[in-house]
């Protein structure tokens, strides 16, 4: 029988789940932004520039950005937020006592486009269902008399 979370960790699991629910869609949006930026850069030779000679926000030829290069910014922000996402996934994984394969699967959510959105809807449903089932089972157990 695999290890199961202790009832005393249920509040921590709920907190970790909320953190994961915030981190997953942010990571997904940043990943999609990164994919769009990579497509623009490598397919069309364009980078996104903020506040340059072409206006407030403009696509410029690669390597010619003179102001803030948002393409590089998107890359850096996604990289750092992926670390936050991994921490959120690891915390939830460790509290739920899932197997290592589940952690690797969750880690792919920040690398494969749209997967984090799928997980953000599926994982909370699964965790909340598990917690409510365990709490209902604990409430249904007869209380032993103190002798």
TrEMBL record:
Lineage top rank: taxon: Bacteria
DUF3817 domain mapped to chain residues: 17-123
One Pfam family from the record: DUF3817
Coiled coil location: none
Protein localization: Cell membrane
Keyword Protein biosynthesis (UniProt): no
Topological type in the membrane: Multi-pass membrane protein
Membrane-crossing residue ranges in chain numbering: 20-39, 74-93, 100-119
Main localization of the protein described in the UniProt heading: membrane
PANTHER family (alphabetical): MEMBRANE PROTEIN, MEMBRANE PROTEIN-RELATED
Protein name: Integral membrane protein
């Amino acid at each position: 029988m695999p290890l199961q979370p202790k009832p005393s960790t249920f509040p921590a699991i709920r907190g970790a789940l909320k953190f994961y629910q915030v981190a997953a869609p942010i990571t997904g949006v940043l990943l999609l932004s990164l994919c769009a930026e990579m497509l623009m850069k490598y397919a069309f030779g364009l980078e996104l520039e903020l506040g340059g000679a072409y206006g407030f926000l403009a696509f410029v030829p690669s390597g010619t950005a003179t102001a803030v290069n948002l393409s590089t910014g998107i890359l850096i922000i996604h990289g750092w937020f992926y670390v936050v996402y991994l921490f959120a996934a690891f915390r939830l994984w460790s509290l739920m006592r899932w197997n290592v394969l589940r952690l690797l699967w969750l880690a792919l959510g920040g690398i494969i486009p749209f997967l984090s959105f799928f997980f953000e809807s599926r994982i909370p449903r699964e965790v909340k269902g598990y917690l409510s089932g365990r709490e209902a089972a604990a409430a249904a157990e007869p209380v032993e008399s103190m002798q």
